[in-house]
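With this grant's support, we have paired protein sequences with backbone structure tokens. One protein thus recorded is set out beneath this paragraph:

_____
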Amino acid sequence: MSVKPIQPPAKRPQGSGPSHFLARLPYWLLAAILLAILFLWRVFTNVNYTIIFKAVVGGVGTTIWVTLVAYTGALLIGLLIGLLRITRNRVLFEITSFYVEIVRGVPVLVLLYYIAFVAAPELVTAINWAGVGLDRMGLHFLGLPLMHFQVRNLDFAARAILALIIGYSAFISEIFRAGIESIERGQTEAALSLGMTRWQTLRLIILPQAIRRVLPPLGNDFIAMLKDSSLVSALGVQDITRIGNTYSASTFRYFETYNVVAFLYLVMTVGLALLVRYLEKRMPNA
């Protein structure tokens, strides 16, 4: 006579639906959502808030555009510098180390002014010089436009993006360098012993693991750049902060205006922070 094994009690299915979803939310997020709902109710029921919101929200597109372009450039340059920082070439290592240490030591706002009012004119001079050289070589169709390129052709939005790229590429390069160096050295030695080149080892084995490890800090840097993009308002770029400054100065409604400005930044940054946390939890261990 066979005895059937005792089956463990079946687990109750976890609850689903809106009530279960709300129960899993942290209290601070519930409080933030409640305050956001109350603020939006205030915006759509108060004439002054409605006018201010419609005016300031026009700068959201500029803020997002500046952030995306600058972060993409900083990501590419940061990866390149991070790779050069782990090279065995002493000259490349020293040059990139000089760049990283100097740029990280300058505040972003100071760097913004320096790029906009010092480096930009010098860059235009170099472009003009290159145009003269191309013109003398007979490449008139390339040389003439460069010769007549002026500082005013380089708008302040482009200068601000360039400053953010330079500033954040130094920090991002250190993230990539730390991620690459966190991979066990034995994996590199094993790949080399199998006949792979150093470039193949880096591209196929080291970088895929390193990128997974550095995604969370890269996400945090994107959020930081979104907030620092407000500094471009100092150059007159029409982002959220600049429009808010202009409107508050003309109407003297500083309280309502900066409430709206802060609300828009909080919605974007908190939303991105939650997305980064979600991706970090869903990400497989490297």
